[in-house]
Amino acid sequence: LTVARNTNQRGRWDGTRSVFPEWFRMYVDLEDGAEDIRQVQAEIIPGILQVEPYIRIIHADWPRTLSDSSIEASVHARQERQKIFTEDDPPNVSFILSESCMRREVGGPEVMRAQLDYLTRVAQLPNVQLQLLPFKTRTYTGTVSFSFSLLTLGAPGIASPLDFVYVEDYDDARYLDDKNAVRAYGDLWRRLTAAASGPAESMDIIQAIAKQYH
Asked: How far apart are CA 117 and CA 194, in angstroms?
């Protein structure tokens, strides 16, 4: 409730943070306070994993024209989010990425090499796990088309942790905390985790794809 009330608090979303659309702001707050973050992405690299040139290309191709200052603010805002990987007491962060995220060329070979190299570096952090769902996977290939995030927030005292599902649309997002919905997405996460390549094998595949961009 506190997070929801503070979403539009005056002064909280000034500066570079103001580039986030209102429907995404609660996610940034939840992400900042989460103990565990799990994300599935099907087509492009998740925003929190994007390198600077990749971010610039994504925003340059945005349906509405953005000013140079807006693009700079967007780059800075996403880079600020990435600090959660290395902050004191960082959350556990897990990703399942479809191979199409690696194959969809954004900005040309040089940008993709930098992007995939960054993924391999982040995946070496002790609190980060990255798995790739390759094209040749024969199980649950249809369900990887559903991109979503699962966030767990610790609750004070003896209260149970709070679980949220974040599902993003083109111009809006849904925040689900209904137990049945959270359970359903949790079950889907576990099935996708089992179907994806292991972390070590995933790094080998990503590095092999990166070499193909040379």
From this structure: 25
C-alpha torsion 80→83→193→116, nearest 10? 70
Q: Please identify which residue in the block is written with the tokens 């070979």.
A: 109
Q: Are strands 128-133 and 92-98 parallel, antiparallel or unpaired?
A: parallel
C-beta neighbour count of 204 within 10 angstroms = 13
C-alpha pair distances (Å), 23 with each of 107, 162, 166, 169, 190: 27, 20, 11, 10, 27
The pTM assigned to this predicted structure is: 0.88
Contact 173, 23 (CB under 8 A): yes
Cα–Cα distances in angstroms (integers) from residue 174 to residues 26, 126, 142, in the given order: 11, 30, 21
Residues facing residue 96 across a β-bridge: 40, 131
The pLDDT tens digits of the residues spanning 26-65 come to: 999 899 999 999 999 999 999 999 999 999 998 877 656 5
Q: How far is the CA of 194 from the CAs of 15, 104, 119, 203, in angstroms?
A: 41, 24, 21, 16
Inter-residue contact 95 to 129 (CB < 8 Å): yes
H or E segment and range at residue 133: strand 128-133
> What's the distance, Cα to Cα, between the start and end of the chain in Å?
49
Provide the 8-state DSSP code for 141: T
27: amino acid identity, one letter = Y
Tokens of 135: 């094209």
Judge whether 179 and 167 are in contact, CB under 8 Å. no
- CB 120, CB 135: distance < 8 Å: no
